[in-house]
Amino acid sequence: MTLPRTDPQGTRDEPAAPVPPVPTPTPRPTRLRLRLGTLPTFVYAAAVGLLTTVLRLTRLGQSGDVFVDEPIYRRLGESAAAGGFPRTDEGTFFLHPPGYFYLEAGWTKVVGEHTGIIAGVHSSRVLNALLAGVTAALIVFLVARVRSRGAGVVAGLVFALDAYCIRQNDRVLLETSTMVWILAGYLVLVGLARPDPPTRPRARALLAGLFFGLAILTKDHAVLITLLPLCAALILGWGPPRRLVALTGAVAVASYAVYLFLIAVFGHFEEFWEAKTAGVRRLLGLVQETGFNAAGAPPLSDRFLDELPAFAGTYLLLALTPVALFLLLRRKEPVYRLLALFHASAIVTLGYAVGIGTLEEQALYLLFVPNLVALAVTVPMPSRKRAARRYVTLGILGALLAVPAASYAHDRWTPDDGFRRLHAYLLDHVPAGTGIVTVDGQRSRGVTNWVLRDDYRLGNWVTPEEQTANDAAYVLVPWRVIEQGYGRSPLAEVQGLTAGLRPVFSFDGPTYGTLALYRLPSAPPLPPPLPGPDVARLAVPDSAVTGPLLPVPEQAITGAGDAPR
Fold it and tell me: 509: which strand partners?
């Protein structure tokens, strides 16, 4: 018997029961995860450059007293802003090229002029702080192009926090802007020395030559760490192809040739030749007017020991200079050979200055930065697989950054603006045109003369007859300058000049020690002080005033601020 088949669910024509839909999960808002490794190098360079600038702008006017060259360079910048070649009251200035002074002139056009020389110096310090930020960014770019972004950031942070670099960048000197152009030139050249050459190599070589030319037009010594390495690269065949190296050097030389042509056209070549031959004699050590090798100057070893606590990190990195050069020479790649020539030239330049040339403190900057770059691109880094060694390395690096950071905090909040306070005190208490005896300056005018010359009569009047003839009423002594042998008058003479005198103004700071103003016995008698609050404390906070004070005279100069003319 056959049984009929039946559908278990009924007839086949009936539709199947619908399957319930699977609920779609509610979309969650996506979180943007920003990995540091995905950021472009520009971001790192900008961050390090900004940090460098901020560190130098913080308390810029209170943490570093006026250095002797700063008012001179500021006046040269002001003269350049007025047109023509930079000049002082002694004539056209050709001891240094005009590059930085025209940069100052452009800065003055942007931010405006200032009524006082100290305010002008502080304005130029802001410019140098910005240039220091550019330097830090260029270090990041250069090291990142040769090695890695991480190494570039570390090198930039070391530069940002280094106490010596901060002091050099804080002062209105030529080295900061010179190094900007040098690093920019090497950044371009490094790209030409890589295995994968970039597009338009001739245009890039021309640009590198222009940067090197600007460096030489800022400071003549730059020729030793720009053209000298290029000549060696041509001979040895190191770095970029010879034709590109030759083009770079030719453009740099042509830049300086244009400057010489303009000097000749405007009839200043004789003055230029006289200034440059004097400068070459100083460079070769035939004339020792300034620096640690000058007669009567304190020995370099004493200065080294005196600044060892503040600059320990700087000296440690400089002690590794031979190691950095050795590691560079071990590498055969053209990029490393080019940096080896850069580094070796900086070593030779400073070594000659230490031996027999004119050695000044700021010359060390032209070795420190190349040495920092050399260390950053060569020092072996621990493997990520070895966590213990990596943590030890990071700890050492953290300590190297923490020590200068602590030193920075201490130095930045230690008052060191004696001449600013002195100038404010004089404007409030001493009539303009009063005669003041100055004892600093050696063979040239010292910082006292350059800061106060616009408002007072100044001279090295050390005998009673000279003081009477010039109506001198005060003696101003930056004691550390005299004690270190940098004064026009010897220490014994200054001690005799101030014996028995009470200072009417005194300030203790790291740069000049005790900066003291004494009133001479031959000066006219002082009127009795006006009743009321201590005007000295109001005019110059934290000053140590131990003598009688004059009320503010009606004819006293009151425009000591930053108002533009």
Answer: 513
